[in-house]
């Protein structure tokens, strides 16, 4: 499960953006609404997440970041050495010369006891 996603200098996102998917502790515990809680933790993560906001606010870019991370984990080993990864930095002089950063914080059980 994705706990946090951080993005900077990626398509239309210039400044660092961090999205925390952990649900607040005071949210109602409706059966079937959340993924299984992490062992020895009170944190819950929803099974379904919606992204909403005004036009041109970065919703699609967040989805592109998740899609890129999926590509990176599954297929990046096919990229030739020195080849450019399939994304664009923020469209500015600083964006093209700066580093693009994507990070994800995952949580979950590797196996069931």
Task: Describe the protein in words.
By secondary structure, this protein is α+β, with helices and mostly antiparallel strands. It is built from two helices and three strands, in the order E-E-H-H-E. Strands 2-1-3 form a three-stranded antiparallel β-sheet, with helices on one face.
Radius of gyration: 17 Å
For the largest beta sheet, what order do the strands appear in spatially?
2-1-3
Label the overall shape. globular
The low-pLDDT segments are none
Please state roughly what percent of the residues sit in beta strands, choosing from under 5%, 5-15%, 15-25%, 25-35%, 35-45% or over 45%. Answer: 15-25%
| Beta strands, count | 3
Roughly how many Å apart are the termini?
A: 18 Å
Measured as a percent range, the helix fraction is 10-25%
The oligomerization state is single chain
SS field, number of helical segments? 2
Q: What's the main sheet like?
A: 3 strands, antiparallel
Mean pLDDT: 83
Q: Structural class from helices and strands?
A: alpha+beta
N to C succession of SSEs: EEHHE
């Amino acid at each position: 499960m994705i706990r946090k996603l951080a993005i900077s200098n990626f398509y239309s996102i210039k400044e660092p953006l961090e999205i925390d998917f952990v649900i607040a502790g005071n949210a109602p515990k409706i059966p079937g609404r959340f993924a299984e809680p992490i062992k020895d933790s009170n944190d819950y993560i929803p099974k379904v997440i919606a992204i909403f906001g005004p036009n041109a606010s970065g919703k699609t870019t967040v989805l592109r970041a998740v899609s890129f991370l999926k590509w990176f984990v599954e297929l990046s080993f096919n990229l030739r050495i020195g080849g450019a990864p399939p994304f664009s930095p923020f469209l500015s002089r600083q964006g093209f010369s700066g580093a693009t950063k994507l990070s994800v914080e995952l949580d979950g059980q590797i196996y069931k006891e």
